[in-house]
Design a protein that fits this description.
48% helix; 6-stranded mixed beta sheet; globular; alpha+beta; 6 strands
């Protein structure tokens, strides 16, 4: 069943008022969209859902045919029906385009507008990480969740075999690939434009918001330690400490009574 908070709130846009609704599922990537809405400082309605046997509840199929979360609906003033946005990167881009363009870097270098290779380094990084978070990093985390489920749900007499298989996949596939990504991100943070601090430069962007879920989930796991990856560790600490993220967590605590980010 879904829980609702303050329905009917509206966000100001260049075209008037818009009603924004976030369909939030526990232990999911929806928390990033909640943070984004807090960062944008717009009003929104929050509907929360509980997992059933690790899966999203069937009610979400009434919102989108795939029945996944996060989902966001946006209804402009005067529109007969809302649009429904799926896929985290698509949602972040749409919401930033309409409600918070300051969370996207400047796209063009001066005098090179609309030219091939005229983009700023900050914007190229932004576009890359909008896809990297889901396309490269998240599949490894999904694999780790599946391996954990295999370990936990295998019959007692099969657990030694299940544990051995899961352990081999982790040691031969997950740890080397995640380590490669941790090293890559460490280097990217050290070489970020304008003194760094964030992946695209010195300012928080929508791409950083997308990165918090996978990185927070693996913090302290799979060899991701403060000693080995100090810049990456500090970056995750910085994301977790932002006021928008803390407000998003508190919003869930207020509605659900607690917040558990673990997968």
């Amino acid at each position: 069943m879904a829980s609702e908070t303050q329905p009917g709130q509206q966000a100001a846009t260049g075209q008037g008022k818009a009603k924004v609704v976030l369909y939030w599922l526990e232990k999911s990537r929806a928390q990033r969209i909640l943070w984004l809405l807090e960062e944008l400082k717009i009003d929104y309605e929050l509907k929360t859902y509980k997992r059933q046997n690790m899966l999203a509840p069937p009610e979400l199929k009434k919102i989108h045919p795939l029945g996944k979360s996060p989902l966001v609906s946006v209804q402009a003033e005067g529109a007969a029906e809302p649009i429904v946005l799926a896929e985290s990167g698509s949602m972040v881009e749409y919401l930033i385009d309409h409600f918070g363009p300051s969370l996207a870097p400047k796209r063009w270098q001066e005098g090179k507008e609309n030219q091939v290779q005229g983009e700023t380094e900050e914007w190229l990084r932004y576009r890359y990480y909008m896809h990297y978070a889901e396309g490269t990093l998240m599949p490894y985390l999904v694999t780790s969740v599946l391996l954990g489920a295999i370990r936990a749900r295998s019959p007692f007499f099969l657990k030694p075999i299940a544990n051995a298989i899961a352990g081999n996949v982790e040691s031969m596939f997950l740890k080397p690939n995640l380590g490669n990504n941790f090293s890559f991100l460490e280097d990217q943070l050290r070489s970020a434009p304008d003194g760094g601090g964030y992946l695209c430069g010195s300012k928080l962007t929508g791409a950083d918001i997308l990165m918090i879920f996978p990185l927070s989930s693996v913090k302290g796991r799979f060899g991701f330690t403060k000693g080995k990856y100090p810049a990456l560790w500090a970056y995750v600490d910085r994301l977790e400490a932002t006021e928008g993220n803390k407000k998003a967590i508190q919003r869930i605590v207020d509605v659900e009574g607690s917040y558990d980010p673990t997968l």
